[in-house]
């Protein structure tokens, strides 16, 4: 006895709906993912082994000093607040509007980076072009 086999039906998988599901999952993961930038570097700032000393012939000079806590003083006058507006006003008053005066920033080695950037920002807003960062000379034998 010979049985007849049924002809096989061709099975088609509808890929359009599968692609829709994949795109929805992709969109879900993109929207719910949070991107964080983590920095694991520890930076120890080097001492300056070379540099040029400030010329003594300059008549008037502005010096911003920043303590380790981020407290500002301008020409040895302590500022009441440590913010950009106070520093900008003090620089404007001390310079008398003359932005050609040399400006030096002396910051403690442990000063927060933001405090130094704020001082540079205040100088840049007023248009100072001669800006110096003071450092200490490296001890002999330290590379």
TrEMBL record:
GO terms for biological process: protein transport. It comes from Pseudomonas laurentiana. The keyword Cytoplasm does not apply. One of its GO terms (molecular function) is transmembrane transporter activity. It is found in: Cell membrane. This is Biopolymer transporter ExbD. It comes from the Bacteria. GO terms for cellular component: plasma membrane. Gene3D superfamilies: 3.30.420.270. The chain crosses the membrane at residues 12-31. Its main location: membrane. The lineage of its organism: Bacteria, Pseudomonadati, Pseudomonadota, Gammaproteobacteria, Pseudomonadales. Coiled coil: none annotated. Keywords: Cell membrane, Membrane, Protein transport, Transmembrane, Transmembrane helix, Transport.
């Amino acid at each position: 006895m010979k049985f007849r086999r049924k002809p096989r039906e061709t099975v088609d998988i509808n890929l359009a709906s599968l692609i829709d599901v994949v795109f929805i999952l992709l969109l879900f993961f993109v929207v719910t993912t949070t991107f964080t930038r983590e920095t694991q570097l520890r930076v120890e700032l080097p001492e300056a082994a070379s540099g040029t000393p400030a010329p003594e012939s300059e008549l008037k000079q502005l010096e911003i000093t920043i303590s380790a806590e981020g407290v500002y003083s301008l020409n040895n006058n302590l500022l009441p607040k440590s913010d950009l507006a106070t520093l900008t006003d003090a620089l404007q008053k001390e310079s008398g509007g003359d932005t050609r005066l040399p400006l030096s920033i002396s910051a403690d080695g442990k000063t927060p980076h933001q405090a130094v950037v704020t001082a540079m920002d205040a100088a840049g807003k007023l248009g100072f072009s001669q800006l110096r960062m003071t450092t200490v000379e490296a001890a002999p034998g330290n590379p």
